[in-house]
Design a protein that fits this description.
Elements lengths: L1 E5 L4 E5 L16 H4 L5 H30 L5 H20 L9 H9 L8 H22 L16 H23 L9 H20 L5 H11 L5 H22 L6 H6 L3 H12 L1
Antiparallel strand pairs: 1-2
Helix pairs in contact: 2-3, 2-5, 3-7, 4-5, 4-9, 5-8, 6-7, 6-9, 8-9
């Protein structure tokens, strides 16, 4: 039996000895167009996981905000910061292996601009994230009604430009960390949730009193839709998206090598390796 592979789609023909007829029992493999079909069971599972992940993220974080406001700062600002950091870490470890654990339109768009996420899946992911955020905000609105009903969204306390710049910087910082721990195979992937959650905690700790430390368009848009409060919403749609795209691209620019850490360490220091390669080329 001989195998003949032709073309980019890997078409394979099985030919028996003494028989020049094609074996029709062996169907050709799926083409790239077939495999690129966006509607599939795994993709639907990813979208559902993205909805659930965003729902629990927004529900837990915004619940801390509402409870703190309704109970005369019983949670405290530090407590709210810890809650946001912990819930991000928990959700990354819970469903991060299914959809990639974006939970954030800015992250999804940033990955797409760097060709680390297919553009054709971006609309579905954005819709899932906004849906999860809106459902979570609606749930909180039903639970905390009357005197306990407090706006869980984000509002600039200073000027719009101050909040815009702050949101840009902290989202840049967040996406820079995400790119390092999630896309670089030299990083310790098991610590991705801890690193991202800690970054969220730090950002909310110092930026929360100024801009609300959104870093996530869905985090601000969901509560705004439920409460019909859109003051300054453009800040939380534009600044985090621009910051995330910039953070992802800057990390890609400074990415030194694609080799994993274990390959570098097994052959000596990286600088030594560069020296050997240069001497060999001479």
């Amino acid at each position: 039996m001989a195998e003949v592979s032709t073309g980019v789609n890997g078409v394979t023909l099985d030919i028996k000895d003494g028989d020049h007829h094609m074996n029709h029992n062996n169907l050709p493999p799926k083409t790239n167009q077939d495999s690129d079909c966006i509607i599939s069971i795994p993709f639907i599972q990813k979208v559902i996981a993205e909805v659930l992940g965003t729902y629990f993220l927004i529900f837990t974080g915004c619940a801390a905000v509402v409870v703190d406001a309704a109970s005369n700062n019983a949670v405290s600002h530090a407590g709210v910061s810890v809650v946001w950091g912990l819930v991000v870490m928990v959700m990354v470890y819970s469903v991060g292996h299914i959809p990639g654990a974006h939970f954030n339109p800015a992250v999804t768009i940033a990955f797409a601009t760097c060709k680390r996420f297919p553009w054709k899946q971006v609309p579905a992911y954005l819709a899932a994230q906004i849906l999860g955020s809106t459902l979570a905000s609606g749930t909180l609105r039903l639970i905390f009604s009357g005197t306990q009903n407090h706006f869980a969204g984000t509002l600039p306390t200073g000027s719009d430009m101050q909040s815009f710049v702050l949101e840009f910087v902290i989202t840049f910082y967040l996406m820079f960390v995400i790119s390092g721990v999630a896309t670089d195979n030299r990083a310790i992937g098991e610590l991705a949730g801890l690193a991202v959650g800690s970054t969220i905690l730090l950002n909310v700790m110092f930026a929360g009193p100024i801009s609300g430390a959104s870093m996530n368009p869905a985090r601000s848009l969901g509560p705004a839709i439920v409460s019909s409060q859109y003051k300054g919403i453009w800040i939380y749609l534009v600044a985090p998206t621009c910051g995330a795209v910039a953070g992802a691209w800057v990390y890609n620019i400074i990415r030194f090598t694609d080799k994993p850490l274990r390959e570098i360490t097994t052959t000596g220091s990286f600088l030594k390796g560069l020296g050997l390669s240069r001497s060999g080329s001479n």
